[in-house]
Each structure stands twice: as structure tokens, then as C-alpha cells.
Design brief:
The structure is a homodimer of 146-residue chains.
Chain A lengths: L6 H11 L6 H12 L4 E2 L1 H10 L6 H13 L4 E6 L2 E5 L5 E6 L4 E6 L4 E3 L8 E14 L8
Helix pairs in contact in A: 1-2, 3-4
Chain A binds a DNA duplex (25 and 25 nucleotides) through helix 2 and helix 4.
Chain lengths: 146, 146
DNA sequence: GTGTTTGCAAAGTGTTTGCAATTTA
DNA sequence: TAAATTGCAAACACTTTGCAAACAC
């Protein structure tokens, strides 16, 4: 009940719920991230997108924002490549395909894969998340089958 | 049949098999890695270890060596933390526990966990590896059970 | 001897930080 | 206005690179 058609409202509410002051930059970034169909973003990618959309925001602010969003539970950080962080707008449990050669990263729904026999965690710790990545490589033309 | 008791021989053979010229540094690093009980190493860790053992080797060479060993299949690179690479001397399939708070990384044998229902890989690709990491956090003193 | 490997230090990533200027409530 | 946020540029951590000297075969 209200202007549900305006994506802005959506982003605004996300920020409010997360107790993040809805500044111009945060709002704009939230809109790009949550309403532009993108799901896996690096800071640089998001920054570029912002630039393309004439959103004035510095890379440092993009980093800050990504971390604030992650801390607030709006994003999930994916560790898939040393030296580069991906942020996933899908915070529900799920898994990934990743092809290093071309940077392709795609989702696998949690219910598509069963993980059984999770060993008991070391004492003094508890399970925080289960990261499952199927790493791919592009087919070569043909390979000897030895 | 030969001096099997000398760890040196072991490392030497590994290098020879991998077609890597057994230089003083490579030999020494191989010995540290494969015969000192260590399994998960960062470049800096290995470099420190080398220093402690009075092995003169530069950090650049440690990096080069780790990559050469990885390319040769002697090591497996683990992506677990953006901005830091771990190298695993266990090249057989297996999984990991990881606790970011203290950097603890430990093995889970492949047969301890079953992964079922691996979705078919995107066309034009093939599965290279399955990375499964159980991320842990240290227990807090007590947590509300809501 | 010849080609490989090493070490250094410099350059390169991606990311974080300090602080003044700006913006929000 | 007071407190939070931003932008910039400098600082960072980790990794790679270029090239001359050292080494292995």
C-alpha cells in the first residue's frame, strides 16, 4: 500500500530496515544492485555501473557501501577468487558455478544439491555457512581420453 | 629401493617427476612443504618457515615456486579468503573447515561428505573441481536461542 | 658454456583509511 | 546544528614482473 511501482521506495525501505541512512549514493547503489537484475558484483563493476548511470560516487564509497550492506545482511560476500570480492544480492543459501577463464559466476539453487554427512564442527565453533563452488573450465576442442 | 629414509630423495623425485630443475631453493621448499607436516600454506608462511630454517630464498621465489608446483600438480590452490592464497599439499579431492576469525583451516576427507545432485554444467564447460568449505565462527559465550 | 633460476626492488592489483568538505535529519 | 557520510588521495597487503647475477647441467 503506497507507491509500490517506484523501485526507489523499495531500495529506500531496504536501507531503512537496515538502519542505514538513505543517502543519495546508497540509494542509487541499492537500486542498481537490487533492481537492475544483477546478482554478482565486484566493487569495480558496481562502480562502473554507477558511472554509466551518471551516479556520482567514489570507489571508496562503493566499497564502504558494499561492506555496510553486507554487514546489514543485504548482501552476501562470495569468496571465489583470491584478490577479488564478489557480492551477491541473493542472501538465501545457494551454491555457484564459477568459470575462472571468463569470470562467469552463476547460481545453483540450494535445493538442487544435497550435501550429506556434514562432519561435526570443531568444538568451540559453529557452522556459519556452507560455500559450495563447482569450478568449471571451458571445453577444449578435443582431448585425449587417456 | 634406494635411500628411502632420506626425505631429500623424496623431494628430489617429486621435482624430477614434475620436470622442475631441483635447485637448492625448490628442494628446500619442497621439503618444508611435503615433509614437515604442513598442509595449508600461504606464500608468506612458507617464506617465514624457510627463513626460520636458515633457507635463503626470496619471497618472489616462494611465489614462483608455489605456482610452478601448482602447475605441476604438486599443490592445490585453495580459495578461501580474498587477498590471500593458500596452497594445499593434499592434491586429492577433499573439503575444508575454515574459521576466518583465527585463520584455522582443516581438512575434511572427501568420503566424509556426500554431494548429491550436481546439476549439469553449462554447455561448453566441464567440471574442474568441487570446492566445499564449511565456514565456522567461534562460539560466543552464550547466545539467545530465539 | 648455455639456458634456467634467483633475488631484488619496482610496479601492479584490489582494498582500506584519514580527514576535510558535504550532506542528512 | 550535530552527527553521519562522502571523496580524494595516500597507504596497504598481497602478488607479479624485469633484468642482471648466480646456478645447474
Amino acid at each position: 500500500m503506497s507507491t509500490a511501482a517506484r523501485p526507489y521506495t523499495n531500495a529506500l525501505n531496504r536501507l531503512k530496515d537496515a538502519n542505514l541512512r538513505p543517502t543519495r549514493q546508497r540509494l542509487a547503489l541499492a537500486r542498481l544492485m537490487f533492481e537492475d537484475g544483477h546478482r554478482h558484483l565486484t566493487a569495480e563493476q558496481l562502480h562502473s555501473e554507477a558511472m554509466s548511470n551518471s551516479i556520482k560516487v567514489s570507489l571508496a564509497t562503493v566499497y564502504n557501501t558494499l561492506h555496510q550492506f553486507t554487514d546489514a545482511g543485504l548482501l552476501h560476500e562470495i569468496v571465489i577468487d583470491s584478490g577479488r570480492s564478489y557480492f551477491d544480492t541473493n542472501t538465501a543459501p545457494h551454491y555457484h558455478f564459477y568459470c575462472e577463464e571468463d569470470g562467469m559466476l552463476s547460481d545453483i539453487p540450494a535445493d538442487a544439491v544435497q550435501i550429506e554427512g556434514i562432519p561435526s564442527v570443531p568444538s568451540g565453533t559453529q557452522l556459519q555457512s556452507v560455500d559450495l563452488v563447482f569450478r568449471l573450465k571451458r571445453d577444449s576442442v578435443a582431448r585425449d581420453a587417456a
